[in-house]
Design brief:
The chain is an all-alpha fold and about 300 residues long. Helices cover about 75% and strands about 0% of the residues. The protein has one domain. The radius of gyration is 18 Å and the shape is globular.
Length: about 300
């Protein structure tokens, strides 16, 4: 039986998820700056979810909630999610926080392109106009030929947006049959297996402060995934996407407080175009009453 739709709850969950995710990304960037290698950060981000959820389910006597008849679908979601998470957390390390967050908002733009190219979906003039406006915003922020936005960081940020567009479809589909806690658990289980294999290449000794940062990353990562997945269970992606844009506020605040960085003039000019394009696409998706819409900027973390 499909889950009951609760739009108001979905919006609240998504707003909370945006704040937690912005905090998580800030901690990832900060922790990498202390000398902890990126590969190990990814390992702790995923692996700590397993004991947290497992212990809670055992204590509640609800381990059966992890049962699924769709393990191949979970495996595919984990494969794309692992790549998407690597890009999502890699972008803010390579770029200023506000700029990397703004690039993540291009997911709706790429979702339209993918829908037309891969699904042969008919895209009308409104959404193509939004796509064009979004790309103008990207060009304004990236300023090709200038050193403000490194080419590698920009490519990783845009790559993350493309991956999230694909992952959102998977999460929405899995949410029809499996609980959010099961989706989060099996993603963490499969991705932890991958990062465990690579961990010896990255592991180094840490200070107590660094261990606390890694612990916070793991806990916040678990909370963010639960909130994101639950929001897709109770509401349409096209309806909840507007809450994701609030993360730019938190990213700007964190960038100023932690690194004394404020968005450049180019970012202030380009960001409204990207946010407006995403909002217009979400509005059109809602009007078209799509059951599945791959336009969530933060579904992979």
């Amino acid at each position: 039986m499909p889950p009951v739709q609760r739009p108001a709850l979905a919006l609240i969950l998504r707003l909370a998820a945006a704040f937690v995710l912005a905090t998580l990304i800030m901690l990832v960037k900060y922790t990498a700056g202390t000398g902890v290698r990126f590969g190990e950060i990814l390992f702790w981000r995923t692996s700590l979810t397993l004991p947290i959820l497992g212990t809670w389910l055992v204590a509640q006597g609800q381990l059966k909630r992890l049962q699924t008849k769709r393990m191949p679908a979970h495996l595919r979601r984990a494969a794309l999610g692992t790549v998407g998470m690597t890009m999502t957390f890699g972008a803010p390390i390579l770029l200023p926080l506000a700029e990397s967050t703004t690039l993540s908002f291009t997911t709706p733009i790429f979702a339209v392109i993918l829908s037309a190219a891969l699904l042969a979906e008919r895209v009308g003039p409104w959404r193509w106009t939004a796509v064009a406006a979004g790309f103008i915003g990207i060009l304004i922020i990236a300023q090709p030929g200038h050193t403000h936005m490194p080419l590698l960081g920009t490519a990783v940020g845009l790559g993350a947006a493309i991956m999230v567009a694909l992952i959102s479809i998977q999460i929405r589909d899995l949410s029809r049959t499996d609980e959010p806690i099961a989706i989060v658990f099996w993603f963490s289980a499969w991705s932890t297996l991958v990062f465990t294999v690579t961990l010896p290449l990255f592991f180094t000794a840490h200070t107590i402060a660094q261990w606390l940062l890694l612990l916070a990353i793991g806990v916040l990562g678990c909370i963010a995934q639960l909130l994101l997945t639950a929001s897709l269970r109770f509401g349409q992606v096209a309806s909840v996407i507007v809450m994701d844009y609030s993360s730019l506020i938190w990213a700007t605040i964190y960038g100023w407080l932690v690194w004394d960085q404020l968005p450049t003039a180019a970012t202030w000019l380009g960001a409204p175009l990207i946010v407006g394009a995403g909002g217009l696409i979400a509005f059109r998706e809602h009007r078209l009453a799509k059951a599945i819409s791959p336009i969530s900027p933060v579904a992979s973390e």
